[in-house]
Amino acid sequence: MNTIDMVGFIGGACTTVSFIPQVVLVIKNKSTKDISLTMYSVFVFGIFLWLTYGIMSNALPVIIPNLITFILAGSILFMKIKNDILTGKKVRG
């Protein structure tokens, strides 16, 4: 593995791991009331685009962290939408 890929993997690992405490908190508290639907929607879409870019350019340091982040952030987004619907809130940002 070259130095450029190593930097990419380390950077990707740092940004990906940063989502784990949020996912754990949402699962533990079963609450997403303080999470912005607009922010997470745009963020998950952006991660999807980075993942697509990584796949199209065959760049593993982009693909792997963004796939994991997409799953983590996507799960928070899913729980946010589900909680808003269950509590009768309008699903909006």
From TrEMBL:
What is the annotated localization of this protein?
Answer: Membrane
Question: Which UniProt keywords are listed?
Answer: Membrane, Transmembrane, Transmembrane helix
Bilayer disposition of the protein: Multi-pass membrane protein
Per the UniProt record, which residue ranges are transmembrane? 6-25, 37-56, 62-81
Source organism's superkingdom?
Bacteria
Name-wise, this protein is: SemiSWEET transporter
